[in-house]
Amino acid sequence: EIVLTQSPGTLSLSPGERATLSCRASQSLTSSFLAWYQQKPGQAPRLLIYGASSRATGIPDRFSGSGSGTDFTLTISRLEPEDFAVYYCQQYGSSPLTFGQGTKVEIK
Amino acid sequence: EVQLVESGGGLVQPGGSLRLSCAASGFTFSSYWMHWVRQAPGKGLVWVARIKSDGSYTNYADSVKGRFTISRDNAKNTLYLQMNTLRADDTAVYYCAREDWGGDYFDYWGQGTLVTVSS
Fold first, then answer.
1. What is the spatial distance between Cα A73 and Cα A52, in angstroms, rounded to a whole number?
2. Which tens digits make up the pLDDT trace of A49-68?
3. Which of A72, B28, B44, B110 could form a disulfide with B6 if both were Cys (CB 3.0 to 4.6 A apart)?
4. Partner residue opposite B100 with nearest CB, options A39, A43, A50
5. Residues on chain A touching B107 (C-beta within 8 angstroms)
6. Are the beta carbons of A102 and B61 separated by less than 8 Å?
7. Chain A residues with CB inside 8 Å of B100's CB?
8. pLDDT surpasses 90 at A31
9. Average pLDDT for runs of 10 along chain B of length 119
């Protein structure tokens, strides 16, 4: 099973600042099969990024993904008030599908 | 508009059974693989099970293998999760999710249904 480790656990930032979230895999991911999701309290997750760097439909371009192999990054270029949430990475290169433990982006 | 609506959650005693349903609309349900993902209170997301578009293949997380069964009725546009021999650590919000055609990631999710296993 591929273990995904996200860091930091919590990121305290102000609106307008840049957020950089990390996701490290215990094994190299096949063809960068990594996705990112955003989850707000009481809501279902929302797909942001797939294939490590492709934005999902309707996702603003302030969200970007990068990385390959075992190290991946989600960057939010300028935080908007609605971006404060928990973010999860997910690998889909091998079974079982696994998620990271999440990074909470909170208002400083 | 794609919609996934789960139902069937509730309180059940340890060792009991429950069947969750996920009603799909707004897309050709029979063309998509579907999944169940769960989230224990205050915890992260955990993949549970998947089923092929025609129902001919299923796959489970080790933690539920032999206890849970995923199935679907394409005529009714409905996904199911039969959960038997429930344990306290099965307590979670259960989401159904549609797999994108590009890979085993999830482009649409339901709102979730809460399953609580407690005596």
1. 8
2. 999 999 999 999 999 999 99
3. B110
4. A50
5. 47, 56-57
6. no
7. 47, 50
8. no
9. 97 98 98 98 97 97 98 98 98 98 94 97
